[in-house]
Design goal:
single chain; eight-stranded mixed β-sheet; six-stranded mixed β-sheet; alpha+beta; globular; 13 helices
Length: 595
């Protein structure tokens, strides 16, 4: 009897070992498929071109093949079949099969959506400024269908443990992220159909922002007016904001915190100050009211675009010519030309009208190309979506339902539009009337310490390198500006940190839905200066997680960001405690935290 039990025990050990090996292979197949799909989600730039879409197709086919291998192994593995009679393990096998099938359904949905996009590209060209509204509506329908197909695949992990439970949780995270993006995409596409004139004519003010003189975005120095008439884009006018000078402030009321911090620079009177606040919905309404006051003409919305935003458009339409200049402006040289070359050698007191119009001329050149050629509407939408993620394109609409979508999808909201009690936003604004931001390179370092009581103490160090040449001669770019005491090349960094709603920051006021602290720091040419803000977030651990949402400033070059978490006495998981890289878009850092 003892010998029989020993043999039986040895057999169970062998079966368990073989089953574990099969399970490990299945998990490897699932992980490969998940990583492949995650890569396609995280790098939507691949969808811009036919070659990129072909690459995504190859990735999806590889994921489907990997899932096929996993399904075959589960069904034909003797050890994994034997566990069906073992209490507790039967649930694991069933959960594993369900997970493999769910992953296959998700991959098939991604494949079908790719087919629809390929078909849509061939049928939905932007030709001579005519918006392919029917194709846009079809894309909205396809996004909704795929989201509805994936949504039920997010299932509870109850009863699953070990590798199966871990794989289920990771799949659910990818599926949830995919559904959220699909839903947001569908909402944005639906709002775009009416914003682009599908239900009637629309007129828009395009505020062209100059990243060589920073506010929260680039300073508004030029404008363009367009309309969508009969679903066709039509150019109306462009010029310098000097043509739209106000004699009295626009009637837009400012919130108390905005008035306290930004009121002295007159954001409802001066176009150059209109977007100093981080609240773009407020800035959009102010610009609409300012335009009406100076022209007597209303607009249906505001489109704000800066130089990197123009570069995104130029990647689709190609180089454009501007009056009086032989060199074509392309995606590769637009920053150099508009933020540096056009100021080179310009004296402080030289007439500026002709030079100031060049940024607006590039915008008009892009519009002329859009209204006189044929372009891939999907690629155009993808480029504009990426630009919006970095704050280089923002939309504001008089239509409340459209505006609500723009806020929720990140196309035109304030930093506090999502998770305001966990959101940080930083801006370095130009405290002089110069174009020195081309030479100014900010960086940000955050040290996050989780206390025993569960509060997060966040020390945000903002560094500014002023790379302007030392002893530069007076010029329009370098100054002096005639307002401050700064010498040519000397910068005044207006450092602003918006911390989470409900947090504590020294000297902060409520602004743009967050807590704003500010300091003016002079940074001479060739000099480096730093300033540290301290923020305390009470009850920072929520549902077993610590999360920070980080919203960048839309600069010509992305700010370098480093975040480091220290949590003595806590068990931290989910991702590394240090993150470092270019701050190109809104993102969140999320750690599991337990005692």
């Amino acid at each position: 009897m003892l010998a029989v039990l020993c043999v039986l025990g040895l057999g169970l050990v062998v079966v368990a070992a073989l089953g574990y090996n099969d399970l490990r292979q299945v998990r490897s197949n699932l992980s490969g498929a998940r990583d492949t799909l995650q890569q396609s989600i995280d790098d939507p730039r691949l969808l811009r071109t036919s070659d990129g879409r072909a690459q995504v197709r190859t990735q999806i086919d590889a994921a489907i093949a990997s899932l096929g291998s996993a399904r075959h192994r589960v069904h034909h593995s003797l050890p994994l079949s034997v566990v069906q009679v073992v209490p507790g393990l039967k649930t694991q096998r069933a959960g594993l099969l369900t997970l493999v099938d769910d992953a296959g359904t998700a991959a098939a949905g991604a494949s079908d959506l790719l087919d629809q996009i390929d078909s849509l590209v061939s049928r939905s060209q932007l030709r001579d400024g005519e918006v392919p509204v029917d194709g846009v509506r079809e894309l909205n329908r396809d996004l909704v269908l795929v989201a509805d197909r994936i949504r039920p695949l997010v299932r509870p992990t109850s009863g699953l443990w070990g590798p199966v439970g871990d794989a289920r949780r990771k799949f659910d995270e990818v599926a949830t992220s995919s559904v959220r993006r699909l839903d947001q995409g569908a909402e944005a596409v639906k709002a775009a159909t009416t914003f682009l004139g599908a239900d009637g004519d629309r007129r828009y003010l395009i505020a062209v922002e100059n990243n060589a003189e920073m506010r929260d975005q680039g300073s508004v120095l030029q404008y363009v007016v367009v309309r969508f008439s009969g679903r066709r884009l039509v150019f109306e006018r462009n010029g310098s904001v000097a043509d739209l000078a106000l004699t009295t402030p626009a009637p837009t009321p400012l919130p108390p915190g905005t008035e306290q911090v930004f009121g002295p620079i007159q954001p409802t009177l001066l176009w150059q100050s209109v977007n100093a606040s981080a609240d773009f919905p407020l800035s959009g309404r102010v610009m609409s009211d300012m335009y009406r006051q100076t022209t007597g003409q209303g607009v249906d919305g505001v489109i704000a675009v800066d130089v990197p935003g123009l570069a995104a458009l130029l990647r689709v339409v190609g180089p454009v010519a501007t009056p009086g200049h032989a060199e074509l402006v392309s995606a590769d040289n637009v920053g150099q030309i508009l933020l540096h070359d056009q100021y080179e050698g310009v004296a402080v007191d030289a007439p500026q009208s002709a030079r100031r119009e060049r940024l607006g001329d590039v915008t008009r050149g892009v519009i002329d190309r859009l209204t006189g050629g044929s372009f891939d509407a999907v690629a155009l939408g993808r480029e504009l979506g990426d630009a919006a993620q970095g704050g280089h394109l923002r939309l504001w609409s008089q239509d409340a339902s459209e505006q609500d979508v723009f806020v929720r999808t990140g196309l035109g909201g304030a930093p506090a539009a999502s998770n305001p009690d966990r959101t940080f936003h930083m801006a370095v604004e130009n405290g002089t009337a110069t174009k020195l931001d081309y030479y100014v390179k900010p960086s940000v370092r955050q040290e996050v310490e989780l206390t025993a009581q569960g509060a997060a103490v966040v020390r945000t160090t903002v560094s500014v390198d002023n790379r302007a040449p030392v002893d530069a001669p007076p010029s329009y770019a370098f100054g002096p500006d005639g307002v401050t005491q700064a010498k040519p090349g000397d910068y005044v960094a207006w450092m602003l940190l918006w911390g989470p709603a409900g947090s504590t920051q020294q000297g902060s006021v409520g602004e743009s839905g967050l807590e704003l602290s500010q300091h003016f720091v002079p940074v001479a040419a060739g000099q480096h200066r730093e300033l540290t803000f301290e923020t305390v977030i009470p009850h920072a651990v929520r549902d077993g997680h610590l999360e920070l949402r980080l919203v960048p400033q839309a600069r010509a070059e992305p700010v370098d960001l480093q975040v480091h978490l220290k949590a003595p006495g806590w068990h931290i998981g989910g991702q590394p405690t240090t993150w470092q890289g270019p701050w190109t878009k809104i993102f969140s850092l999320r750690w599991s935290a337990s005692r």
